[in-house]
Amino acid sequence: MFCFPVTPTVLSDERVVLEPFDLSIHGEQLFNSFLPHPELFTYLPWGPFPTLSAFHDWHHKRIASDPGSTLFAVFPAADASGAAPAIAGMIGLLNSSYTNASTELGYIILNPKHHATRLAHRAVRLLLHWCLDVPSEVEGTLGLRRVEWQAHTANVRSARVAERMGFVKEGVIRWNRVLPVEKVGVGRGEEKEDAAVASERLKLRMGDGKPGRSSVLLSLCWDDWEDRVREHVDKLVETFA
């Protein structure tokens, strides 16, 4: 059970719809959408998922069992024909704290055919409004104080999207994750050190030689949102075709 109430049940604008993720409804659709594109998971500490069962296991461990995490299924809005659109991807919140009135925006993965459609920006805007608008002004919103965004230091595109949406870079959290052996990480492309040498050195740390990740930390806080960023985000998204 997510630590904040997920209301309203659907977030939407004229181009995108976010539905609270239901594994029984959205799971297979999402898995099939991601299956041909393992590159989507290059900078993430998990995935790609070789089987639907593996995706189910990830969802249970990372989402369903964690009160700090929740997911939304991302859909394009229905066109004039009224036909139900195919799922575009997912977006969610993690590391959420009711006590600290904070969350982190993440799990943002869209099928490559939607990368040029600005659906991701629109989905981010919807979640920012839901998280940062106050309930006394917009019914069903959370009125949080802080939203974070973390990105692999090699994933420059992700950090740029966050900054474009008004997030402020606070710094780099060095070596904050241990990654699976097949992932890109510190000593595996982020630094000039030879990968084989780096792996041998890492074996002295917990004995496994797995690569590590450093993360760019960005944030958007309630006062930034009210003073300037809410208007900036709305204007930015409305400029998209």
Automatic annotation (TrEMBL):
<dbReference type="Pfam" id="PF13302">
    <property type="entry name" value="Acetyltransf_3"/>
</dbReference>
<feature type="domain" description="N-acetyltransferase">
    <location>
        <begin position="15"/>
        <end position="168"/>
    </location>
</feature>
<dbReference type="GO" id="GO:0008999">
    <property type="term" value="F:protein-N-terminal-alanine acetyltransferase activity"/>
</dbReference>
<dbReference type="InterPro" id="IPR016181">
    <property type="entry name" value="Acyl_CoA_acyltransferase"/>
</dbReference>
<dbReference type="InterPro" id="IPR000182">
    <property type="entry name" value="GNAT_dom"/>
</dbReference>
<dbReference type="InterPro" id="IPR051908">
    <property type="entry name" value="Ribosomal_N-acetyltransferase"/>
</dbReference>
<protein>
    <recommendedName>
        <fullName>N-acetyltransferase domain-containing protein</fullName>
    </recommendedName>
</protein>
<dbReference type="GO" id="GO:1990189">
    <property type="term" value="F:protein N-terminal-serine acetyltransferase activity"/>
</dbReference>
